[in-house]
Amino acid sequence: MQTDTELAPCDLILFGCVGDLSLRKLFPALYHLQAAGLLHEQSRIIGLARKPLDDESFAAQVEAAVRRAVGSAFKESHWQALLKRIRYLRLELSEPKDYLAIKTLVVDLSPTVIYYLATPPELYGTVCENLNASDAIVPGGRIALEKPVGHDLESSRCINDTVSRYFSESQIYRIDHYLGKETVQNLIALRFANNLFGSQWDQNHIDHVQITLAEEVGIEGRWGYYDRVGQMRDMVQNHLIQLLCMVAMDPPTQLTADSIRDEKLNVLRALRPITAKNVARRSVRGQYRAGQIDGVPCPGYLEEQGGRSNSDTETFVALRVSIDNWRWSGVPFYLRTGKRLADKVSEIVIHYKSQRHYIFDPRQRSMVQNKLIIRLQPDEGIRLRVATKEQSLQQGMALQSQALDLDFGGGQQGRIPDAYERLLLELMRGNSSLFVRRDEIEASWEWCDNLIDAWHQCQTPLEPYAAGSWGPDSADALISGRGRAWHQRVD
Ligand SMILES: NC(=O)C1=CN([C@@H]2O[C@H](COP(=O)(O)OP(=O)(O)OC[C@H]3O[C@@H](n4cnc5c(N)ncnc54)[C@H](OP(=O)(O)O)[C@@H]3O)[C@@H](O)[C@H]2O)C=CC1
Ligand SMILES: O=C1O[C@H](COP(=O)(O)O)[C@@H](O)[C@H](O)[C@H]1O
């Protein structure tokens, strides 16, 4: 994971520049990079979309979005410096002749041009073909593709085939923004820079692993997109599987992009398929009904804006996953993700085995088991729960569980950069470590396609859950047994 490559001038051509992602995430991230002095003086940003906007009205939209995201920390001087770099170009992505304007533009641009596709993925192939036909791809240019790359293995291969006709693998940066989150990168430091953890990261010491990506939000007006996709393709195929790989991978031989990606690929190849034979025991799919979150009433999925009265799309998934290799033999990974759950929380919890020869009160055994809680959001940090003696004269050797805490969000370290700041920076530096390689994406699709097929074959029921709950009851049943339960945030 090299991060010290010097910044060279580079120009960002942002396709889909007035979309939700660009306005909510990318421009605020660019603002913060500008504020931190991390944009090269000569780097420019050219936004492309089909809305008839001039530079001024585009800038006004971007400014409003950046102000919203940055809040009271917004500084006019940083914004003005960013604004100088920004231009708008109107273009219909499916219209080849519109690309001539890009061709004219790239002649003037820096040696490094980044084509960032924040557009619907169905257009990725078309954009590459049209760029090529207009001779608008500069040698050494980089292309960034937002997730999801495809809808299944076949469509993913098709997109990858088309893109790779015009860009070599080393020029392609497939984005999974979870890989840009600070705590995810800290996993690398935690695991591979600390012998304490590195030496005990296996089936001899770990009982099971839980990964939760829970959201309070519903589908936020994205019915058209979401109902075709569902939680499996929206969150499991990419973010959840990438986190699983980061937790489960063997140590890379070096901190290079390919070393890390080779190890993640090995995990994907070792995932035991979930098929019609075991799908009922290993998965739960759910859909939210009306409920309340923090006292505020929320509609059910079918009543969401743009929704219809019957949809079989899952908004919640829980899985029990096995990794068939030496390190993880017999260690289940419990994964869950859902919309409209009780809280917004993304965390990885490593549950350690308890002492083989246990000399304390056996009733306390599960309560004081060691847990390593890696919190991605909110309150980024790492917490280790250890057993200590209760401080009391009366209790004898009674144990209690206490926490050793690392709070990354704590005052001294300042603001935690958003994932897109890190990703844009590494993209400009040409560091691929935080981006997903073609074989990883395809191996992940292959595994997910199997699971989705199994759901179809077995007509796996869609279990209702109330908005504001932690998902269907059967998700609790999936993990229960051997004293296991989903980790609760009070810990
Ligand atoms: N929004 C998010 O939080 C996340 C999004 N993503 C991915 O990012 C990508 C963009 O998502 P999002 O921003 O939500 O999508 P939006 O629908 O909000 O924005 C799409 C953008 O693409 C432009 N566009 C679409 N079709 C054309 C066309 N034919 N010609 C020219 N421009 C076109 C739109 O321009 P115009 O408005 O002018 O029509 C708009 O600027 C998707 O791949 C999505 O999966 C990934 C992670 C999170
Ligand atoms: O990719 C996506 O991620 C968001 C959740 O991202 P987070 O960083 O806020 O945890 C999710 O809401 C969206 O549906 C999905 O497309």
From TrEMBL:
One of its GO terms (molecular function) is glucose-6-phosphate dehydrogenase activity. GO terms for biological process: glucose metabolic process; pentose-phosphate shunt, oxidative branch. Residues 189-487 form the Glucose-6-phosphate dehydrogenase C-terminal domain. Substrate binds at H177, K181, E215, D234, K339, K344. InterPro entries: G6P_DH, G6P_DH_AS, G6P_DH_C, G6P_DH_NAD-bd, NAD(P)-bd_dom_sf. It is an enzyme of class 1 (oxidoreductase). It catalyses: D-glucose 6-phosphate + NADP(+) = 6-phospho-D-glucono-1,5-lactone + NADPH + H(+). It comes from the Bacteria. Its EC number is 1.1.1.49. Keywords: Carbohydrate metabolism, Glucose metabolism, NADP, Oxidoreductase. Pathway: Carbohydrate degradation; pentose phosphate pathway; D-ribulose 5-phosphate from D-glucose 6-phosphate (oxidative stage): step 1/3. GO terms for cellular component: cytosol. Residues 13-186 form the Glucose-6-phosphate dehydrogenase NAD-binding domain. The keyword Ligase does not apply. Catalyzes the oxidation of glucose 6-phosphate to 6-phosphogluconolactone. This is Glucose-6-phosphate 1-dehydrogenase. It comes from Aestuariirhabdus litorea.
